[in-house]
Amino acid sequence: MKTQYPIVNENDEVIGEMGKREAYKAKQMLRSSVIFVFNSGGELFLQKRAKDKDRYPGAYCMSAAGHVEPNETYEQAAKRELFEELGLKAELVEISQERVPVGPGEFAMSAVFTCVSDDEIALQEEEVESGEFHKIDDVLEMIRAGNSFTPNIVYLLQKYGDKLVVRRG
What we know:
alpha+beta
């Protein structure tokens, strides 16, 4: 059976439920959690999406991200996605919860988290083609140079930039 995800309005109130593809097609707003993982040197782990993804195949995006499942909190979804996609467990800091662009005329109600980890990363091959750590300024330059990025990471990095960077110690 296909999972039915909560559809929310701009106040994050549940107004219905749909499958992901249905929701995208109908331009309905799903809930998502996005995680920016930094190493102790303040570099951001940037993932490159798998080439067979339905949306934005092969594009760069945040360290980990995913939809909030039914009966799951934003933080639970963030921890689940962080472990599934990167094999990491880390203390998360919530930066914001807001309406974030995810495609032309499409938005998600997204909780934005950051964390610091120097642990070894184990990529989930079905979701992630590759990934590596970069300085924020280098990522912003990659965006300006026209590299393929998902709309949500572009929006969040341009809005928050260095404010996302967390360092240990």
